[in-house]
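Is this the right way to post structure tokens for a design question? Let me know if I should format differently. Anyway, here goes:
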């Protein structure tokens, strides 16, 4: 069976070759298809970045128009799929609702399941990009007991999502373009991050030739964990807890450093970045801007900045090269926009979707791809004989 090496957590093992995203963790560099994240965040849009990640190049004006139009045409959910949401308890976390609904797309759209048919892959790609915002908004509406709003295809993807989430049928939705632009930019920042836990999951599920919808559903589940995308919700809960206890960051930091009850500084640390996460730097600026406008009295931003300052000057964090990651400041922005903490990881999923799709497609187009099937180091019993039930103590 050959020589097997153990690399728990894949710290040093590459699972594939990829031309999508480049990270230099030591220098805090992130590029999609060669383009620096700072330039994309400032100049591009989520739709354009989705195109870039999936097809490899920035679109021409006509390519962008066609792509946008295709997505626009697929925003509706099958009427029966709408009823699917009624089966969940109202107090359910939206992540399992969203991942289940995405998995259910395999049942409702059976004409786009074949991974070996490029036209079907194209159709499932467009369907996912178009329908995930609708699914996410419906999961939110279900949780607050409000009616679902059909997509309005005269609006852009992010604007439509905001309207379906916060709008009501009884009154026109008053869209704030600055909020829409900020959310669009945050989705750009989340759009890909090479072989992270959820993307590796999407690749692994897809490597068995499972369809795109079901592979993405697997990725959404992996993302939910607090060590990954669930960290944005966990950060806000941590800040709330510190605030409720009187805002004492020193005592909290003491517990983190002593590893008391496994307490971590959520939103800090990263497997690859051993320097400031370039996404966190951009998010921090946005947090200043958005909170100044929407929630100038929010005391949690001050607590977050205080924690960061303490951490960046503390030996525990310096020695371990722990810096704020993308999740540290995002929750404060989402909350100021009106999202409850339970929706934060759903927003991460919306952003990461094009990255997952790009990786799934790259994997299928790579002749070197084989089914993902890691080996193990066996540590169990050596061979022993079966003992009859009457003979067992
Ligand atoms: N607070 C306190 N100590 C930490 C933290 C933290 N947030 N992160 C790492 N450490 C310590 C860890 O205990 C270990 O210490 P020691 O050497 O004494 O055992 C050392 O730093 C190395 O950490 P590690 O756990 O071996 O690092 P990893 O690469 O396996 O884990 C991580 C990376 C992101 C899971 C981890 O840093 C973490 O749990 N951070 C908090 C959760 C979080 O913010 N996750 C979001 C990640 S970025 C976006 C995303 O992927 O979704």
């Amino acid at each position: 069976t050959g020589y097997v090496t153990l690399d728990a957590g894949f710290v040093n093992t590459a699972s594939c070759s990829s031309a999508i995203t480049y990270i230099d963790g030591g220098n805090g560099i992130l590029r999609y298809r060669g383009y620096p994240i700072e330039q994309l965040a400032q100049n591009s849009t989520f739709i354009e970045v989705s195109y870039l990640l999936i097809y490899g190049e920035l679109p021409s004006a006509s390519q962008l128009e066609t792509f946008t139009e295709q997505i626009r045409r697929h925003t509706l959910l099958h009427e029966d799929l709408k009823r699917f949401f009624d089966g969940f308890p109202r107090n359910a976390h939206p992540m399992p609702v969203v991942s289940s609904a995405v998995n259910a797309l395999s049942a409702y759209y059976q004409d786009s399941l074949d991974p070996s048919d490029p036209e079907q892959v194209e159709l499932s790609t467009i369907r996912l990009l178009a329908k995930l915002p609708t699914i996410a908004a419906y999961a939110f509406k279900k949780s607050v007991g409000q009616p679902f709003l059909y997509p309005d295809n005269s609006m852009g993807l992010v604007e439509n999502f905001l309207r379906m989430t916060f709008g009501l049928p009884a009154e026109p939705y008053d869209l704030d373009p600055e909020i829409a632009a900020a959310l669009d930019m945050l989705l750009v920042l989340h759009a890909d991050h090479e072989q992270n836990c959820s993307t590796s999951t999407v690749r692994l599920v897809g490597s068995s030739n499972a369809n795109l919808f079901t592979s993405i559903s697997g990725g959404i589940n992996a993302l939910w964990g607090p060590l990954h995308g669930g960290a944005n919700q966990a950060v806000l809960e941590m800040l709330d807890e510190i605030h409720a206890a009187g805002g004492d960051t020193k005592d909290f930091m003491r517990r983190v450093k002593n590893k008391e009850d496994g307490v971590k500084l959520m939103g800090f640390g990263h497997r690859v970045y051993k320097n400031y996460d370039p996404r966190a730097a951009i998010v921090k600026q946005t947090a200043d801007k958005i909170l100044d406008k929407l929630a100038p009295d929010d005391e949690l931003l001050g607590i977050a900045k205080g924690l960061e300052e303490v951490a960046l000057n503390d030996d525990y964090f310096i020695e371990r090269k722990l810096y704020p990651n993308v999740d540290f400041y995002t929750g404060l922005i989402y909350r100021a926009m009106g999202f409850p903490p339970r929706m934060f990881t759903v927003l991460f999923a919306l952003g990461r979707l094009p990255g997952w799709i790009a990786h799934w497609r790259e994997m299928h187009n790579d002749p070197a791809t084989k089914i993902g099937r890691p080996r193990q180091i066996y540590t169990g019993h050596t061979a022993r004989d079966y003992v009859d039930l009457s003979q067992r103590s």
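Format looks fine. Someone answered above. Worth noting: Strands lie at 21-24, 29-32, 35-36. The domain at 1-372 is CATH 1.10.580.10 (Citrate Synthase; domain 1).
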